[in-house]
Design brief:
The complex is a heterotrimer of chains A (810), B (274) and C (165). Chain A has 21 helices and 29 strands. Chain A is α+β, with helices and mostly antiparallel strands and 810 residues long. Chain A folds into 3 domains: 160 residues, Aldehyde Oxidoreductase, domain 4, CATH 3.30.365.10; 190 residues, Aldehyde Oxidoreductase, domain 3 (Alpha-Beta Complex), CATH 3.90.1170; 332 residues, 2-Layer Sandwich (Aldehyde Oxidoreductase, domain 4). In chain A, a hairpin with a 5-residue loop joins strand 13 and strand 14. The relative contact order of chain A is 0.13. Helices cover 32% and strands 27% of the residues of chain B. A 5-stranded antiparallel β-sheet of chain B has the order 4-5-10-6-7. The complex binds FE2/S2 (inorganic) cluster (FES) (2 copies).
Amino acid sequence: MTDTKTLNVGQPLERTEDLRLLRGRGRYADDLPVSPRTLNAAILRSPHAHAEIETIDITEAMSMPGVAAVITGEDVAQHSDPFLVALRQPLHQWPLAVGRVRYVGEPVAVVIADDRYLAEDAVDALQVSYKPLPSVIDPEEAASDGAPLVHEEAGTNLVSVRDFTYGDPDAAFAEADHTFKLTTQFPRHSYMPMENFVVVAEYKIEDESYDVLSNFQGPYSTHPVMSRALRVPGSRLRLRTPRDSGGSFGIKLAVFPYIVLMSVASKITGRPVRWVEDRYEHLTAANSCPNRVTTLEAAVTKDGVITALRFDQLEDYGAFLRAPMPGPLYRMQGAITGAYAIDNVAITNKIVVSNKMPAGLVRGFGGPQLYFALERMTNHIAGELGMDHLDLIRKNLIPAGSFPYKAAAGSLLDSGDYQKAIEITTGEGRLEDLIKRRDAARAQGKLYGIGYAAIVEPGMSNMGYLSTLLTAEAREKSGPKNGAISMATVNVEPMGTVSITADCMPQGQGHETILAQIVSDQLGLAPEDITVNVEHDTQKDQWSIAAGTYSCRFTPGTAVAAQMAAAQVRDKLAKIAAKNLNTPAENIEFTDGKIHAAGNPDNAISFGRVAGTAHWAPAELPDGMEAGIRETASWTPPELEAPSPGDHINTSLTYGFVFDMCGVEVDPVTAMVRIDRYVTMHDAGKLLNPLIAEGQVLGSFAQGIGTALHEEFLYDDDGNFLTGTFADYLIPTVAEVPRPEILHMASPSPFTPLGAKGMAEGCCMSTPVCIANAVSDALGVNVAQLPMSPKRLHALIDEDEPPRPSGAGQ
Amino acid sequence: MKPSNFDYCRPDSVDEALSLLSEYGDDARIIAGGQSLMAMLNLRLAAADVLIDIGRLQELSECRQVGGYLEVGAAVTQAKLLNYPGLAEIQPLLAKALPNVGHFQTRNRGTVCGSIAHADPSSEIPLCLAALEGEVVLRSASGTRTLSAADFQTGMLATAIAPGEMITAARFPVAEQGAGYAFAEVARRRGDFAIVGLAAIARNGTLRLGAGGVAGKPAILEWQIEAGQLDDALNGFAWEMEGEDDIHATAKYRRQIVRQLGRKVLEEAKSCSS
Amino acid sequence: MLKLEKDTRHKVRFVLNGSPVSGWADARMLLSDFLRQELGETGTHVGCEHGVCGACTVRIEGRAVRSCLTLAVQAEGFDIQTVEGLAGDDGALNALQTAFRKHHALQCGYCTSGILMSLTDMFQRNPSPSRDEIEDVVGGHICRCTGYAGIMDAALEVAEAGAGK
Ligand code: FES
Ligand code: FES
């Protein structure tokens, strides 16, 4: 690598992916050719929140044209085992309801037919008789005694309760000048991708294996869950993911039960089976973030220093605990104190099940839930103490210069200067402008407020964090879990062309472009000289349990592995070239497709020629060197240790910092919120591609707006699902999303060789609460529930209305 | 999400369409742009045994001014009406309301009369038709009849279309000299169905306010300006519609919008009048 | 009069991106399915099949419409354009596509084809639309990835160039 040339890493390069996507030549899961023998599936889903399945009459459906099979829970139970659950609780889930349905939308039967139209016709002809059972929707109700049981075998809906103590919170509360308490409710929603789930499964009788194509996103810790359910060794579940995926944001992990379901369907029918989820199915049953009720107490000194926090977190996972749930409740555990230096923390984590769709991964993954409680609390404390919220934030931040900082619950915050980040954000007149806008608006009698939020954004999860859920003794028994392995391969072909494969499943994040940037720098090539293939095949490609694209693991993980693999290639090539160039390998540089002695570009051989030696003339290679050039690197950071006996856990590897501030106006008549100005500051260490990084901020910001103001899965008291179309489940469109002002600073991570941190989830965590703080300021109320829909805000600002005139109806 | 099975007919004339209608009766449904019907068919919330596509019928594809009305044929798209030369003068209420109907892409295909036939309580076009006291032209094998908007829409998603009958045109009164028109709506997002839609007309000392999205069909308040006390009238109007709670809004919220935004729209209409 | 009976396949013909094409469709087959499954033109995507998301938007006789709310047979004889027909004859990206790339107006690309078709319709009728007019058109699409900022920047850049002409 030379130092004279600008590196490709760090440049805002335009994406190579776009060249095909803009031409309509992307290849998403449902675009790939399938065998003409392939049948198509449609799923009958439960109309009841909770019911016993008495009978399923398939006679009429089976007699319909094109119908090959109808598969019910009995078939599935015969051919597969229930999914493994992280909790030791009897929460048995198969991909089809067996005997009982537990949420509206739960799959009950599958019709396999020639095409989807015919399959849907036959679904309509299935006759199921249900015996309805009492259901429970509200998490607090579900957790209370006497509530209808979602899983009778478990004997309770409160399937896990764990207490944690870090420091001495009781003493801190006893000594506190003030204590505050706030209960917040985080809703169910999903950053659902525009592409729905797709599975094409084929059972191969010759070796009793399954070959599946799906737009799965990882983590591949779910692969053993699927193969166990299918009763095959992992190597006999071949899972392939296509090059392009139409967004995921965590959601496409939840395709895994359908991978098992369609595999079983293929085994039963003896034909390949394709299932393309439709939007109604997706909205009703694919995935939701868990809803959470948090009661947070804070111990505070009279000058606003927070000395302790006490969390009571009740998280509602819906009807089942699918792997890797209850991740969201534990992903933030080590960093539960956020950006603040608070030494004493008590946590009670409670997991409840209810008659709603099962929860799963959603971008932010526990962060939005935590920060809605925490940053509403700091805002509340400031208000109660008569302090400015920003001053209170500043007073409690982790001091600059103390990184890496060990947070109370175990996170090792890698780097940062939060004070400086806030100073930059408020500087250049930005804060003054916000205040000016607020004062002017208020002078006109408008409802205007300012909000702030300071959050720490985790990147690359410790695969051991979920075991914090178990007691130290139970962890001891089941063996340690830790780390987060990333893998990438750099291959140099006989003519010296370079290609990369990796363990990521990009869904729009531009990984191909970034991997080419990283590897081209190492090898002195241009990014466009490098071919990146991110299709993934578990039978052929490198992967381990952490594989996938989720929890911001690409930048601190796969990108590092790619750099390491490229460095291995470079070392090998340097050794080969050393002989020809008559200079030691350490003295060799790679520039513009040439390999040459440092400081002497004339003493050079072409990259292709050196690489060719490894293929065409292995005898010429230095002693002991393997022929061919294909290097796979595997990287796991040592900082990701297993939970300590005292339950301290470094939940993630990198911790970025996000600071948001905004001004909003609430319309007193329509109760609608207009975002007047929004500023968001991100310290994600070194940015690998600023253009792509900005896109991640913009996208997560738009999703944050959705969470703040629009999106919510709604059920009525009987568990009926009310938001089954895009006319009811409201995703922000262009008019609802203003462009935020984005600021960056860079505190490189000392724990990742590239200095980069995960950065794609920040605004999903910061934006909802920042807007909630601003709305609270505008209305002079404590917003405690999201989204701040006009209906909800109207109830908060509700005034008496003129009475019904006599004679007007009724 | 695929529609259930149907036969598809594309008649070459209205007469042919009518004879198909009498042949198939209740099993048949007329489709023009299909922007409401196709979504319902895909969701299997509606089914038809026979679809009769009138979308290409030339005789239904015209907008023209006749006898104080702007007559809009049953195959005229919302986009075509919105871009009709001089619409802002011919009928300002339509020019103001139409951009709120669905989105650019659905207006490109969705028809004006299709929206009227669908009779969604919160859609803008039926509201305008009712506020303007427009008419709907219905034809069947046995003849033609014209219904006032008030008689045409009987309730939520319900109309007076008789078996064997189809809409051939809607008639919007052209703007009166000196009258003022205004339109406003509250929707969760731009382009969504209105939680409350309001159409206001001010003319000759009379105010007329149409409200959609509250009752099962557009409701109308008429008010003589010199009678004073508009607030009470608006409050009575807001209550009388007996709006209900749904996932987007409460009945009380709707009443508030009718009272407050209603006043604003009426004032705007008044300020546009002379 | 054209009459197609259920459960029988019918020949459907139209002009796609300048070339005549044909395929077989049931009366009830959606145009989106016909394009993707019958003709193999998978650049048009399907996100909701109830007319809200805009992923399936194509141009029929120049107008951007939802192919999921249109039957294949309704396209019979018309001129249809899809995303595959946007690049120039030499295969080069057109000005709008180029602007999308420059402004990072797409991430996963799933919504992109539909948005390109809508904007193409708009620019063809109005080369220099205002921000509000562009917003109205983009408002008929859901993009889950980009937050729309890059899409607006790209469209505004093309609009500015259009105004300069
Ligand atoms: S797929 Fe047609 S609008 Fe969503
Ligand atoms: S780029 Fe992914 S939905 Fe728009």
